[in-house]
Amino acid sequence: MKSFSPAIFLILLASSASFAATTKVTLSTDTNPGTGQAGVGYVSVVGTGFPSGTISPGAVTLTITPPTGTATTTKAAKVKVISGSEESVTFQIPATISVSTPTVYTVSLKGQTSTGNKFVSSNTSALTIDPPASLQTVAPNSANAALALTVTITGAYTSFVQGTTVASFGPGIAVGGAAEGASGPVTVTSPTTATAQISIDPAAATGAQTVTVTTGTATETLPGGFTIETAVAVANINMTTTNPLPVGFSGYQDEYDLNAVEYWDPKYIPFVQALKPGWMRFPGGTPTMAFDWQSGHMNQTWINTLSADGVSSTALAGMSRGLQLLQAKGGAFLSDFATFVPTVGSPGGIVDFNGFTDTNANSAQLMVQAAQTAGLNVLEWELCNEPYFYSGVFANGNAYAKAMFNPYYTPIHTANPSDAVGLFYEGEFPGATVNYQAWDNAMHNYSPQYWQGVSMHFYPITSTTISTTDEEQTLNGVLAHGTNDYFNSYVIPLIGANTPLFITEFDSDGFGTMPFEAYIYDAIFQAEFVARVSTVPNIKTTFASQIYLGNNFYQSMIRAVDDFESYLIRQVTINPKYSTDTSTNPNTQFQFYWSTKGLAFQILNNAVNSSNATWPTTFSGGPTVPILGYDGNPVPAVFAQGFQGTNGTHYVIITNKSNVSVPIGIEVNGLLGPASVTASYISSTSDTAENTATNQTAVQIVNTTFSNPLTVGPYSVTSISW
Question: What is the pTM of this model?
Answer without folding.
Answer: 0.90
